[in-house]
Amino acid sequence: MAEKAGAVVLVSGGMDSAVCAAIAARDYQPAAMHVSYGQRTEARERRAFTEICDRLGIATRMVIRDESLGKIGGSALTDTSIAVPEVQDVESAIGSKVPVTYVPFRNAHLLAAAVSWAEVLGAKKVLIGAVEQDSSGYPDCRPEFYRAYNEVVRTGTSAADITIETPLIALRKAEIVRRGVELGAPLDLTWSCYSREDVACGVCESCVLRKRAFADAGVRDPVPYAQAVLH
Amino acid sequence: MAEKAGAVVLVSGGMDSAVCAAIAARDYQPAAMHVSYGQRTEARERRAFTEICDRLGIATRMVIRDESLGKIGGSALTDTSIAVPEVQDVESAIGSKVPVTYVPFRNAHLLAAAVSWAEVLGAKKVLIGAVEQDSSGYPDCRPEFYRAYNEVVRTGTSAADITIETPLIALRKAEIVRRGVELGAPLDLTWSCYSREDVACGVCESCVLRKRAFADAGVRDPVPYAQAVLH
After folding, report:
1. ipTM metric
2. 10 Å Cβ neighbour count for A23?
3. Which of A83, A104, A163, B49 could cross-link to B116 by cystine, CB 3.0-4.6 Å?
4. What is the pLDDT of residue A3?
5. Residue-range domain boundaries for chain B
6. Does the distance separating the beta carbons of B116 and A112 come in below 8 Å?
7. Residue A193, marked binder
8. Using the beta-carbon criterion (under 8 Å), do B113 and A116 form an inter-chain contact?
């Protein structure tokens, strides 16, 4: 089961992670990890993960359940008593304060699991498709977080030579779409919507940012939407 | 449920965590978190956690299951195909290389969950009873790991003012026993053994370090052992 892998790539099932997985599949023989954490669209994202790995030929996979984030709550994604906001335009999706869809310190959970696995597999890289530009302003998507995390990995592992890579962090979302098309990343299999699992809602932050990205890139978004964004 | 808490304290159920919890109970109104991660003595440690919290009057508690470490394996504590070593003396327990009982990057998992919870509770401190001195040489028990992790917390959280504290990290194990006795920490309720749940084996690294600590402190170890260490 623990085959040789050059990298562990975290794949949520969204468009950024699919492009990141395509980069990993091109550059390394990666193992792919997916984390279910009680988010509203958990089942749909897990399906996207499986289909993306199938398409990219990534055979070594691990799906894990992080029970803590659901129990801790504090986010519209994990606590059904907090509504997922509908946003009217991209400006309100990018807003200057941390939105209620922020899952507290989530990416630290994902990285911890991926680094543990990398250590056991002997993989030297952990890839994550975090994006700072055109994003919702989550603190755990900023470059300084990943720089700091690399120091944690250096000091806290037995291997000490694993590094986190964030190949998309400085890209605009439209550039990520273009990069995905160039790489043949399976954008058609991805799921970005925060609130629905049948068709994408089109009005959550994630849908609004995604739609604008495809529009700016001049690429048709292959995912079906329930309604158009009003802008 | 999410009552006001001044700190989140991680409590494994071992002697160091019980002393750390007693410090937290003295200085803060803490919430206590326990993580089961598929370790051999999971049920016994969870019982110790509950009893320690009861004794210290810590009402706000969370027990979570981290499924990933068991799936990832790579440690004698989580993989039953790797034997827990029996050590002959304290010197071989402290050894210079990372032992097979190291659970890869485990403390990064524990801290991620505790920091997420602190963020939601509005707690400003996360306490963990990590010990560098007299320990088995786990990389994620060293001060530099916690210094680096504090930078991750500063950059990766919305609150940005949570800090990790390691009140025991520089103490010898015998000093921890003495500190525990002074504080009235519930050392009698703790469980340190890596391999057994009925009585402590007395011959794993953890038992050997614990027995020496009590002996050096001149305090009777209240926990029953299966056999004496040969030295």
Report:
1. 0.93
2. 22
3. A104
4. 58
5. 7-83+98-194
6. no
7. yes
8. no
Ligand-binding site membership of A13 (annotated):
yes
How far does the CA of residue A143 sit from the closest CA of chain B (Å)? 9
Cα–Cα distance between B114 and B112 in angstroms, integer? 6
DSSP one-letter code for B167 = T
Give the mutation candidate from B152, B161, B166 for the A interface (greatest A CB count, under 10 A).
B152
B7-83+98-194 maps to CATH 3.40.50.620: yes
Looking at residue A160, what is its pLDDT? 73
Q: Which residues of B touch A71 (CB under 8 A)?
A: 62, 64
b vs e for A50-80, b when ≥16 Cβ sit within 10 Å of the residue's Cβ? bbbbebbebebebbbbbbbbbbbbbbbbbbe
The pair of three-digit structure tokens given for residue A225, joined into one six-digit string:
């939407």
Q: What is the pLDDT of residues B29-42, one digit of tens each?
A: 999 999 999 999 99
The CATH homologous superfamily to which domain A7-82+98-192 belongs is HUPs (3.40.50.620)
Per DSSP, what are the bridge partners of residue A106? none
A106-133: pLDDT as tens digits = 999 999 999 999 999 999 999 999 999 8
- Indicate the residue of B67, B116, B140 with minimum beta-carbon distance to A156: B140
- Nearest residue to A86 (alpha-carbon basis) of A200, A176, A190, A188: A200
Does A120 contact B72 at a Cβ distance shorter than 8 Å?
yes
Residue ranges with strand state E in chain B = 7-10, 30-36, 61-65, 125-127, 163-165
> Closest chain A residue to B68 measured between Cα atoms?
A64
Are the C-beta atoms of residues B197 and B177 closer than 8 Å to each other?
no
**Beta-carbon separation of B152 and A157 below 8 A:** no
